[in-house]
Amino acid sequence: MRSSGAFKIDTDNTFQALELESEAKVDGETASDSESRVDTASLPPSADDTPEVLNRALSNLSSRWKNWWVRGILTLAMIAFFFIIIYLGPMVLMMIVMCVQIKCFHEIITIGYNVYHSYDLPWFRTLSWYFLLCVNYFFYGETVTDYFFTLVQREEPLRILSKYHRFISFTLYLTGFCMFVLSLVKKHYRLQFYMFGWTHVTLLIVVTQSHLVIHNLFEGMIWFIVPISCVICNDIMAYMFGFFFGRTPLIKLSPKKTWEGFIGGCFATVVFGLLLSYVMSGYRCFVCPVEYNNDTNSFTVDCEPSDLFRLQEYNIPGVIQSVIGWKTVRMYPFQIHSIALSTFASLIGPFGGFFASGFKRAFKIKDFANTIPGHGGIMDRFDCQYLMATFVNVYIASFIRGPNPSKLVQQFLTLRPDQQLHIFNTLKSHLIDKGMLTAAPEDE
Amino acid sequence: MRPGKPFEGETDIDDRYGDLDSRTDSDIPEIPPSSDRTPEILKRALSGLSSRWKNWWIRGILTLTMISLFFLIIYMGSFMLMLLVLSIQVKCFHEIITIGYRVYRSYDLPWFRTLSWYFLLCVNYFFYGETVADYFATFVQREEQLQFLIRYHRFISFALYLAGFCMFVLSLVKKHYRLQFYMFAWTHVTLLITVTQSHLVIQNLFEGMIWFLVPISSVICNDITAYLFGFFFGRTPLIKGCRVCFTLLPIHPLKRPFLGSAVLSFISSFTKLSLSPKKTWEGFIGGFFSTVVFGFIAAYVLSKYQYFVCPVEYRSDVNSFVTECEPSELFQLQSYSLPPFLKAVLRRETVSLYPFQIHSIALSTFASLIGPFGGFFASGFKRAFKIKDFANTIPGHGGIMDRFDCQYLMATFVHVYITSFIRGPNPSKLLQQLLVLQPEQQLNIYKTLKTHLIEKGILQPSLKV
């Protein structure tokens, strides 16, 4: 029912056929599963990829409900998988994020190859993966140096690698760049430049987002779980509301999205976010920053929860007071932040989805790939998350905390002595001004 | 030498996107030559010469004009240099985007011109905000509104970018999805190339004008001397020389391991390369040696003056940029003992050099060996899109981007070199970040720093703590 990776570049007619079909969809039907549409004339119908087990179990249902069940079961499977990984801890989460990133990169690059028929270009597959490796090395090196500072300082080879990290990463990238220039072949310059541009834009999208996700994760698992769950919840709620109440189409790009689904999803997500943050703020393992403990050589999440995660009394504004009948309510301050996160997830997150829909329409593909039956590729599931990770990272940096103190200490230690003294004195006078330190005249 | 308008003769229909993408280069017709843009005055002055020499003279005169303009701006100071870098960046962006419009004939796409310039503005705002906040810390602390802008700088920049992103999504028009995505990607790659490089240049500049002048001059010198050596002595094109070396490789055909055959297939694809046929090995090697010598001498000359050597600082009392400081060790003459064979040649025991001159050898080597790859990249780009020059701005030379294509990699290299080998992080930025922390964190850091400084003996321990 859904297209596989092999598709043809279409002509005029098919483009129009795709458009006409979507018009019909909007007029007659409610928000139903796009997969149940009949394939357009040009895309060859591919084999059904649902596992045999599911096929047999659902063989007697009609095709529309069968699809719904397949999607439902896979959704539950993915959510269960998500919970298992959370249970396994931050290290496993980091690895999963990395695998998802590689798979997304692979999916988008494969689309590029198919678009440009450039699978046979010399060296290009190697170069794309090489650039992915370089950029990942650069980003992981920066993160590892920050968080594993003491471990890195102990091991001699690691210390050198981290001291000259930028230089080494730049050299690796430069090698790839020079190989690209040397690999330019006479009749294929344009294709090669297109693939070079395609690779770089994909790296910009996929790799930077995944590293911001890991930064959020290290801030505290709650900063990773709540945003992702809000986006997933928004997806599901908007779908449900649209399915049951959907009537007014939202945007031409995604004809199955409706205003009822959008608004219903927004409210449901905010409520869900509030509840989820209330539940999670109680547990240290979610709330504390992830730290690497040198003695036990593992990650620990143990700390004194910050102010954000301690219950406080808030006065309810008059309007709600009459409705609920309470004067004050006890909430975690984090729940206020979660409202901001959920609002972003429901209002702006869908733009990531529209972007991906536009991309799929532009390149005439149904799904990014065929990995998850009923859902398409990994990228299909993560397109709305795209903007969320950056938003959370920017939000944390701007409103929650400043720079990382241990990183600052590291940077301080690399300065010259006179610069160190200057900073130390300025800090001292600042602290004395604030009253945190008493002025001691004997100090130089 | 003449910039051209691409795609005059194309007949493909707009909607046949597949053909646009998967056509090989040979299907695209050549560009018709456009009109000559040399100013009238030059034409009259050189009307008597033959066309080859006339071209040479035009290029020569324009080169000298550009170099004198460069000197003039250096004299005017770092602020003018910053403005110059900014204008060059905007012009390069404009040139590359215009090429994109022509390639995709998307000049009439709704909103796209506005969005491209908007994204340029956003990214510049983000980068300048980060730099300005660091270097103008004292100035910024005074003004209240600037404080607010600095504190939430990332959030504001992200919100601005997001607004542009949402406008892009909302502007997607039914029949033009693919074109719009292409232009979106084209804009982003151009931003990545031009804007990040220009900001690295400005950061190098703030480190000390010498870090800006020596690399740029090395690249320009390499261009000019490689051209001159090639003009007078050039005989072996780069490609042929490679083929000769390839045949000399001592690998028995039957015994090639997998890696060996991969390397050989790579080299054989290189020999088919025909980018820049006018570049020759003589020019390349001659340019390399001249650039190293030039860099060495330029570093020696410039290291003497505080104006070039000191980091640029903003003094709030005089409300301007000053370059006054105690020159660091890099810029103080030191004696180096010569290795024995040089001792015999020069008949001296030691030589006094600035340590910076050693670094300048590294910079010049990069400029002559790797810098040309930026030029090959730009040549490949021009061949891919069948254009002679990026634009028409400078008569005899093409567009601004034509002059700056080799500089592209140089700026990043210098920045990475400085951060890895020369100095650590910026002290004022560090101080600013310290002041933003929570008071308890500040106190902790204060204590850690104090113990560290006492250990190192920089601070004398006091009796009362």
UniProtKB/TrEMBL annotation, chain A:
The lineage of its organism: Eukaryota, Metazoa, Chordata, Craniata, Vertebrata. Residues 22-38 have a biased composition (Basic and acidic residues). Keywords: Lipid biosynthesis, Lipid metabolism, Membrane, Nucleotidyltransferase, Phospholipid biosynthesis, Phospholipid metabolism, Transferase, Transmembrane, Transmembrane helix. Pathway: Lipid metabolism; Phospholipid metabolism; CDP-diacylglycerol biosynthesis; CDP-diacylglycerol from sn-glycerol 3-phosphate: step 3/3. Its main location: membrane. Catalyzes the conversion of phosphatidic acid (PA) to CDP-diacylglycerol (CDP-DAG), an essential intermediate in the synthesis of phosphatidylglycerol, cardiolipin and phosphatidylinositol. Belongs to the CDS family. PANTHER family: PHOSPHATIDATE CYTIDYLYLTRANSFERASE (PTHR13773), PHOSPHATIDATE CYTIDYLYLTRANSFERASE 2 (PTHR13773:SF4). This is Phosphatidate cytidylyltransferase. One of its GO terms (biological process) is CDP-diacylglycerol biosynthetic process. It comes from Camelus dromedarius.
UniProtKB/TrEMBL annotation, chain B:
It is found in: Membrane. Residues 1-36 are annotated as: Disordered. Its EC number is 2.7.7.41. The keyword Membrane applies. GO terms for molecular function: phosphatidate cytidylyltransferase activity. Pathway: Phospholipid metabolism; CDP-diacylglycerol biosynthesis; CDP-diacylglycerol from sn-glycerol 3-phosphate: step 3/3; Lipid metabolism. The chain crosses the membrane at residues 56-88, 109-128, 148-170, 182-202, 208-233, 281-302, 356-378. One of its GO terms (biological process) is CDP-diacylglycerol biosynthetic process. It holds the Pfam family CTP_transf_1. Keywords: Lipid biosynthesis, Lipid metabolism, Membrane, Nucleotidyltransferase, Phospholipid biosynthesis, Phospholipid metabolism, Transferase, Transmembrane, Transmembrane helix. It is a multi-pass membrane protein. Residues 1-26 have a biased composition (Basic and acidic residues). It catalyses: 1,2-di-(5Z,8Z,11Z,14Z)-eicosatetraenoyl-sn-glycero-3-phosphate + CTP + H(+) = 1,2-di-(5Z,8Z,11Z,14Z-eicosatetraenoyl)-sn-glycero-3-cytidine-5'-diphosphate + diphosphate; 1-hexadecanoyl-2-(5Z,8Z,11Z,14Z-eicosatetraenoyl)-sn-glycero-3-phosphate + CTP + H(+) = 1-hexadecanoyl-2-(5Z,8Z,11Z,14Z-eicosatetraenoyl)-sn-glycero-3-cytidine-5'-diphosphate + diphosphate; 1-octadecanoyl-2-(9Z-octadecenoyl)-sn-glycero-3-phosphate + CTP + H(+) = 1-octadecanoyl-2-(9Z-octadecenoyl)-sn-glycero-3-cytidine-5'-diphosphate + diphosphate; a 1,2-diacyl-sn-glycero-3-phosphate + CTP + H(+) = a CDP-1,2-diacyl-sn-glycerol + diphosphate. The keyword Transmembrane helix applies. Catalyzes the conversion of phosphatidic acid (PA) to CDP-diacylglycerol (CDP-DAG), an essential intermediate in the synthesis of phosphatidylglycerol, cardiolipin and phosphatidylinositol. Belongs to the CDS family. This is Phosphatidate cytidylyltransferase.
